[in-house]
Specification:
- This protein has a single domain, classed as Alpha-Beta Plaits.
- The chain is 23% helix and 11% strand.
- It has four helices and four strands.
- A hairpin with a 4-residue loop joins strand 2 and strand 3 (33-35).
- The longest helix has 12 residues, at 63-74.
- Residues 85-112 are annotated as: Disordered.
- GO terms for molecular function: 3 iron, 4 sulfur cluster binding; 4 iron, 4 sulfur cluster binding; electron transfer activity; metal ion binding.
- Keywords: 3Fe-4S, 4Fe-4S, Electron transport, Iron, Iron-sulfur, Metal-binding, Repeat, Transport.
Length: 112
């Protein structure tokens, strides 16, 4: 099992999760984070840290597509290990549906 980040993270990008990850398997895009599924040790400490409930186990329905999504972008984006402020529109976008189609950016974040 691994954990994944789904579209609930898009346009919010809370980073509370990166500080608790013991293996630094989070990667930063311009407006979301992903988890490298081959680096995740399945400890689950990140899941309760996410205010947007965007981190889920890969055993949940529809998680398979997110495993591949997370794998793809974790190989393109820089690692992030330091907590940063969420995006300015985070509160407004938290819980909104259809964020992948509306807001997702393939651009990398700064990492760090």
């Amino acid at each position: 099992m691994t954990y994944i980040v789904n579209d609930a993270c898009i346009a919010c990008k809370y980073t509370d999760c990166v500080e608790v990850c013991p293996v630094d398997c989070f990667y930063e895009g311009e407006n979301m984070l992903v988890i490298h599924p081959d680096e995740c040790i399945d400890c689950g400490v990140c899941e309760p840290e996410c205010p947007a409930d965007a981190i889920r186990p890969d055993t949940e329905p529809e998680a398979e597509k997110w495993v591949e999504f997370n794998r793809k972008y974790s190989e393109l984006w820089p690692v992030i290990i330091t907590k940063k402020d969420p995006l300015p529109e985070a509160e407004e976008r938290d819980g909104e549906g259809g964020k992948l189609e509306k807001y997702f950016s393939e651009a990398p974040g700064e990492g760090g």
